[in-house]
Amino acid sequence: MELPYSSELPIHSFSRLFDNMSESYKLFWFQAVVEHVIQGKNRITFSEIIDYMIADAWYMVSEYRLNFGPSDTLEKLVFQIYENSGLKTTEKKENILKYLQDNQEPEVIQMKRTLALHVPFRLQAPFLTGAKASFWKSQATVIERMNQEKHLLYYYDQVQGLKRSIRINEEWLDYILANQSVLLGWLQFHMIEYLQKRNPSVPGIPNKISPPAKRHLEKVKKYWKAIVTVEPVCDIYTGKTLTGEEVSIDHFIPWSYVAHDELYNLTPTTKNVNSSKSNRLPDWNTYFGRLCRIEYQAYQIMWRNRTVHALFEHCKKEHINSQDALIKLYDPSIGQETFYKNLEDILHPVYNSALNMGFPKWEASGS
């Protein structure tokens, strides 16, 4: 991806900011810097930047369970804060930042200091020529040399620790503000590329670099509401008969992992159960057979009821995007045993992959 040209700035060096990454830090540090610049700040403390790094990585780690790398401190820090803070996986960014600003836990502070050891300096390595490995061993030497360089993205003050500030170079300040949309797109490209490399079997990575969006499942909800008026349908998690008024649509394998709204992974339940399950995996041995039964029941009703069939056709346009699933699950010639086997073939590998990514198991109380 080509960056906007500047006759005054070393764009070639700038374009190499994310070369040779073994951890995620450069991506999130740069993103935090750009976010602050867009907000009108040209002097930013290390602590402020790292708080933004944590908040920007929050959903990827806590909600989507993405892997940043085997020794990535940012991932470990986000997960530790999530485990101990009581903050939700879908917490608003401003609430995360407020919590971080007030947090003085020694272990959190130490991990933030670890993040600040190298990335503020190594990010700008492409601007330097002749800097050998030994150069980076002394932070004082690095700062002294960098503060004498021309055209760096930012420079450093002499305060120690997390209170140290960077001062954005005025030339780069103008460039970032003038090209912010392109730069954020360029950053997203590298973020997706990095995360796909670290999570090769995880679907929907491009949908997982932003906070979770509201799901649009109205057509699926209408479909299932129509089905429950034709014949009784039992919630797969509680066994209770569902009514049209209480139908809530759940992703059997959480959307946080699959990042799609395919019909075969959607099942009706109640709002309370849906909320209780959240982004956890229903126990396969307990619930998959029930899912098969309810999906096949709906499949049978759909072929013999005009109203339900019409609603299915509406759903199909948005919620059946896999040609393989369409052939294996939604052909009128398919019998029950074949349907069950085909659904298992589609879902079970995905379920196991989500389990391996750390998505916890769940069972409904009293099920």
Automatic annotation (TrEMBL):
GO molecular function terms noted in the UniProt entry: endonuclease activity
Alphabetized UniProt keyword annotations: Endonuclease, Hydrolase, Nuclease
Domain HNH nuclease: 235-282
CDD domains named in the record: HNHc
Superkingdom of this protein's organism: Bacteria
Cell membrane recorded as keyword: no
Name by which UniProt lists this protein: HNH endonuclease
Organism: Diplocloster agilis
